[in-house]
Amino acid sequence: MSAPSIPNLLSTRGSRGGGRGGRRGRGGRSSSSASSRNHDTIIQGTDTDAAVSRMSAVELGYLEDPFAQYFVQRPAVAAGAVTRRLPIINRGTYVRTMALDRLISSFLSGIGQGQGQERQVISLGAGTDTRCFRLFSQPAQAGLVYHEIDFPAVASKKLQLVKDVPLLRNIMPDPASEAETWKQLLQNGCRYYCHGLDLRDLTKPDSKSLDGLRTDIPTLLISECCLCYLETAQAKDVIKHFTDKIPTLSIILYEPIKPDDPFGRQMVSNLAGRHIRMPTLDDYKNSEQQHARLVEAGFEQVREMTVEEIWRTWIPEEEKERVDGLEGLDEVEEWNLIAGHYIVAWAWRGQGFEAWDGITG
Q: Where, in this chain's numbering, is S-adenosyl-L-methionine bound (predicted)?
């Protein structure tokens, strides 16, 4: 996804070269339509921050992503002035990306193999996420169906960028546009769909099913700080939209938690200062409530870990040494505090998820 920086709610210290860590979100209506539109615009704008955070982590050697450079403002890249985030933010971007890469790789390589090679990924609020390009540039992803959903303006901008950049165009050649959906038939039987759609419209009674959606193959639903921008009832309805249709279904959530302790209250205050709300944060405040949320949604098995726990248990010691050597991190206590306020939760129902069941450390 588009590499949200860990302190996106809470960093008041800024970054080297300006700007703050951010993340695109998709939703969050307020009482009036005017303020709702304004909030949507603000949330869409945070995707720019997310792209810069990802590029910062790539430029400094935390991550490898040859596509990240195309999703930051080109004048800044040409001038060599890509914003460098603080070390604590770069580490957060790195850990979140590594965690989701591990879970998604496990899904693609080990889940549903007894049912054939076809698998499906649905990325909610995809924004400038580059994962689809990274996956489709790998020859091993035969039979992958990949959906991205975002506001029409965001999806249209991404489509235009693919048309303009040869490296991206070589991965996604000859786009075929129909209405608000851009669809591709790629090599090895892969399919890609970019849907220009407000998630809140997806759950309306008269809404049509997503073009190309498969209900008969193992599916992974991904929400990286996306559903948290919706009202709680809307977020539930989005998940239900897919649980009602797809029997063999899994989900990955990346969201903030603990809004009521001193650090969490500062997070929420900083959000409010940017005119951003995360309504579900009031209802899913901790690991237990995130767990219960997914059980209530109909998933049979649920796991969750904070970003701090993932750093301690998933990242090998030699890799930690490499990351530490990139910049050094003096604020270890602050890192533990920040990383403890973000969670990755994953859940599933159906057969063939043994690989996920074994991911604990």
A: 96, 125, 198-199, 224
